[in-house]
Design goal:
The structure holds two protein chains of two kinds. Chain A is of the alpha/beta class. Chain A is built from ten helices and eleven strands. In chain A, helix 2 runs parallel beside helix 5. The two termini of chain A are 29 Å apart. A three-stranded mixed β-sheet of chain B has the order 2-1-6, covered by helices on one side. In chain B, strands 4-3-5 form a three-stranded antiparallel β-sheet, with no helix packed on it. Classes of the chains: A alpha/beta, B alpha+beta.
Chain lengths: 330, 113
């Protein structure tokens, strides 16, 4: 559970929408869930602890752990994937003298290792991956639908949708004509790199394609979680406040591009575009901004050009080999 | 920031270390959090207390050092101290300061037995 935003740790589900192509599935993250090929893993933990405290310095511990790991392949056909239901629990018996153990690792080291694996996979396959973030209701999904329609036949692309619940967004994307996979994060408020690794294992984006990842609608938590994408892109709509970049600075600091959406509504609103962009650049000097409307199509060509350039660069790096892919990291 | 996910990640690093080093209990955990990392330290502490509860780090003392933030001011060309990502330059009051330090979130070391 997130103490700050109130989200909870819960079951995460991937809805592939169709049976995954097992022959093409890739595995780059170790872990029981993937190795089974099953799409659901339930971990049950029973803990019994007996503590006997003597009168001297003696301290006896008796620990009894039962760990049941139930796989439910019945859910495979439905394309559901549940992620870990909590941290590992373990005790080791016996005591020794206190000593220091150096760790010196980033708290997100595990996530970052998964993100690096995703990034290597994208590099090896020439996939240009974009992580779209915004608050709920900024028009991310509508923008994606419009983007898919505009790129139809011009660029191979796929979409990974992150939401707490429902497969509505993935259904909208599929209806627009692109392969899509829904990740439900349960009570989780962001996608992480391991979830994305599972998702690309099921979706298997085509070589030299565009992968659009729509993160959970949340301007806070997704900022800190690298998925292995080439760029984070924030969608801010003019129906929100122009001070949002100041209110959510971490996100606007983390992104490489801001899409200012719904500009067709500007005549009806008191929204200062120049002030909004100035606020974003106060947090992130030099931030690139594209003003557009998914509804009217205004400004869409600049966004499509940006995507085309990214895909072309990813293809070029793939053909240039691993050194160029490594140089493009980050 | 998602403090519970961070707390679970800290426990993951501790469990990794336990598998390597084979200790029985964690007495203390020392963290280093950058002032610009976007982490609410008190929220992180309470999340750590929750995820540590049934683990090898149960009741471990949590020491959290805050690393100061600094950045490079594009307006005056100096390296300056930063309290927040959107703070103006304390030297020239220019708004274009690029953060360079204070974004880290690290587990430094553990006191174990």
């Amino acid at each position: 559970m997130c103490n700050v935003c109130g989200c909870g740790a819960g079951a995460t589900r991937v809805d592939a929408g169709a049976k995954p192509d097992k022959g093409r599935r890739h595995h780059h993250h170790g872990g029981a869930e993937e190795d089974t090929g099953s799409l659901m893993a339930i971990h049950e933990h029973d803990h019994d602890h007996d503590h006997d405290h003597g009168h001297g310095h003696g301290h006896d511990h008796d620990h009894d752990h039962d760990h049941g790991h139930a796989q439910d392949p019945a859910h495979a056909a439905a394309g559901d994937l549940h992620f870990g239901l909590g941290p590992a629990h373990a005790h080791a018996p016996g005591l020794s003298q206190p000593r220091m153990v150096r760790i010196e690792q980033d708290i997100l080291a595990r996530n970052n290792a998964c993100a690096d694996a995703n990034r290597r996979w994208f590099g090896a396959h020439g996939v240009f991956a974009i992580n779209l973030v915004s608050s709920p209701g900024s028009g991310k999904t509508s923008l994606l639908v419009r983007t898919i329609e505009a790129l139809h036949g011009a660029l191979p692309l796929a979409v990974i949708e992150g939401d707490q619940q429902t497969a509505r967004d993935a259904d909208r994307i599929r209806a627009a004509g692109a392969p899509a996979l829904q990740i439900n994060t349960g009570k989780g408020c962001h996608l992480d790199a391991a979830m994305l690794g599972h998702a690309i294992g099921h979706l298997v984006p085509a070589d030299d394609s565009l992968l659009l990842i729509e993160n959970v609608g949340n301007l806070v938590c997704p900022a800190g979680f690298d998925l292995g994408e080439a760029h984070k892109v924030v969608v801010l709509s003019v129906t929100e406040g122009e001070d949002k970049p100041l209110k959510y600075p971490d996100m606007f600091h983390a992104v490489d591009l801001m899409l200012l959406n719904k500009i067709d509504l500007l005549p009806h609103l008191h929204f200062d575009v120049a002030q909004c962009i100035a606020n974003a650049r106060r947090i992130h000097p030099g931030l690139e901004v594209i003003e557009l409307s998914a509804e009217s199509g205004a400004g869409l060509s600049a966004w499509l050009d940006w995507l085309h350039r990214g895909v072309a660069a990813a293809r070029q790096r793939r053909s240039a080999g691993p050194e160029a892919q490594l140089a493009a990291k980050g | 920031m998602h403090e519970m996910a961070l707390a679970e990640s800290v426990l993951g690093l501790i469990e990794d270390a336990r598998r390597r080093q084979g200790f029985a209990r964690v007495r203390a955990v020392r963290l280093e959090i950058g002032a610009l990392a976007g982490v609410e330290v008190e929220a992180l502490r309470s999340c750590l207390a929750i995820v540590f509860e049934r683990s090898v780090a149960r009741a471990a003392r949590i020491e959290c050092a805050i690393a100061p933030g600094s950045g490079y001011c594009l307006d005056c060309g100096q390296t300056v101290a930063m309290d927040a990502l959107y703070a103006a330059c304390p030297r020239c009051a220019g708004p274009h300061v690029q953060a360079t330090h204070g974004m880290q979130m690290r587990v430094r070391d553990l006191m174990v037995e």
